[in-house]
Amino acid sequence: DQAKQRLAAMLSEEERRASRELLRPSPNQNGSPVVILHPGANWAHKRWPAERFAALGQRLAASQGARIVITGGPDDVALAGSIREGMQQPAGVLAGRTTLRELGACLEQARLVVSNDTGVLHMASALGRPVVALYGPTSPAFTGPLGDPSRTIVLHHPGCCPRIPCYHPVHPGYPGMSAITV
Q1: Interior CA angle at 172 toward 78 and 122, to 5°?
Q2: CA angle, residues 106, 80, 111, in degrees to nearest 5
Q3: Dihedral through CA 180, CA 101, CA 90, CA 121, nearest 10?
Q4: If we measure between CA atoms, which residue out of 158, 157, 140 comes closest to residue 149?
Q5: Which of 54, 71, 135, 176 could pair with 157 as two cysteines, CB 3.0-4.6 Å apart?
Q6: Which pLDDT belongs to residue 142?
Q7: Burial of 31 (0-12, 13-18, 19+ CB in 10 A)
Q8: Measured between alpha carbons, how far is 40 from 19 in angstroms, rounded to an integer?
Q9: Can you give the pLDDT at residue 27?
Q10: Beta-carbon neighbour count of residue 23 at 10 Å?
Q11: First and final C-alpha spacing in the chain
């Protein structure tokens, strides 16, 4: 709770205002819960497949009325676009459009954050947001989100690599991440 307060206190009202503008719903989405999908990761073998993120976003939008927002850095713009293209329901793309602090303010407004093992996952957890953490070649026991366990679901398939953590994958297909289903 102290980490949440410290991190939340670091966000300025200007950053919160910018995030509200970025996340402004269309008239037919007013009141819909925001679900943030963060598909990026610094290693390819830490990434859940884009088509699975798209299928999850589609399912949450259709069944829960969720407003899907796909985030990421400048290098994730194409990835985020491919996920949006894979969905029939509309989705917003903020990849490459926010500062890290504005992204934190967006995370603060999310009803749910689904992310690979990244810094963004840890920010969302520290802000007290419910998270679904997707792990493959790293160990959630060592690098797992430290937030409230009642707000965290960790999906981990250690069969990804012969040794965890796996810094140099030489096998195709990243079976650990592929084992996580929608």
Answers
A1: 55
A2: 35
A3: 10
A4: 140
A5: 176
A6: 83
A7: exposed
A8: 20
A9: 66
A10: 17
A11: 30
Q: Read off the amino acid at residue 181.
A: T
For the record, the structure tokens of 20 come out as: 């509200």
Contact indicator for 177, 46 with CB cutoff of 8 Å: yes
Task: Determine the residue type at 3.
Answer: A
Stated pTM of the model: 0.90
> What six digits make up the tokens of 106?
């967006």
- State the DSSP string of the chain: -HHHHHHHHHS-HHHHHHHHHHTPPPGGGTTPPEEEEE---SSGGGPPPHHHHHHHHHHHHHHH--EEEE---GGGHHHHHHHHHT-SS-EEE-TTSS-HHHHHHHHHH-SEEEEESSHHHHHHHHTT--EEEEESSS-HHHH---S-GGGEEEEE-GGGSSSSS-SS--STT-HHHHT---
In angstroms, the Cα distances linking 19 to 110, 156, 165 are 11, 31, 34
